[in-house]
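Q: Predict the bound structure with CO-5-methoxybenzimidazolylcobamide.
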Amino acid sequence: MATLQDLSKAVIAGKANKVKRLVNELLEEKVAPLDIINSGLIGGMVEVGVRFKANQMFVPEVLMSAQAMEAGTDIVKPLMNVDEVQDIGSVLLGTVKGDLHDIGKNLVGMMLESVGFKVINAGIDVSPEAFVEGVKEHKPDVVAMSALLTTTMLHMKDTIELLKEEGLRDSVKVIIGGAPVSQDFADEIFADGFAPDAVSATDLCKKLLGIS
Ligand code: B1M
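A: Predicted complex:
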């Protein structure tokens, strides 16, 4: 019988095929998709982060873990779309300028879609100008910015300031997230909210748009 711990270990080892097999086995064992993501896949990436910081893992291995994790989320993703016909609001989502981390951001997108938001995924390395263009083009209800680096989180402030300069700030809610950011930082840069994880991000968007 496959376990969530086996899945975490396969993510750490960067074994995409094993991850796919274990995810399928766990689904057959009726383990909830959200547990597979939170405890199995993210659990593995958390340990990867610890080892990366301690110089026990290096960029190529971390990338293999990231790819293994994505192979797992690709299987679970269709199961999260409980009601694709809903359209409760739209979210322009991106990782800020200079930042290439997209695993957490993509999870946020997946969770938002699963509760009925339309997600416009602007990708990674999204400049303040590109966020502003995205707002003009798509007129989203929410702009959601992700950052994983202490250096790049500062571009969240630049984006909010540019939205203000362009007269667009009042037309959208702005939320932020990612490991180095916090509610205090959100308050400091006048974001409308901060979410510590992907599930909280959906709750926050709903709350900001007055959806119960
Ligand atoms: Co990078 N990296 N990395 N990395 N990397 C971190 C972030 C780091 C903390 C590792 C460490 O030292 N322990 C460190 C940052 C230090 C700092 O600034 N404080 C770091 C570094 C230094 C770097 C490089 C500079 C390394 C180098 O080249 N020397 C480099 C920078 C590249 C760049 O961006 N310009 C780099 C590169 C990479 C890889 C490319 C190898 C790879 C990214 C692959 C990819 O994303 N496609 C990578 C990875 C994988 C990591 C770690 C190990 C894991 C990140 C991850 O995916 N976690 C990470 C260590 C760590 O975070 N512990 C690390 C799993 C993911 C599910 O969690 O992204 O936190 P997370 O998302 C969560 C929440 O934060 C939240 O919800 C998600 C889940 O519920 N969330 C939001 C995220 N965005 C949100 C938005 C929201 C709401 C919630 O609303 C808008």
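A: The chain is about 55% helix and 15% strand.
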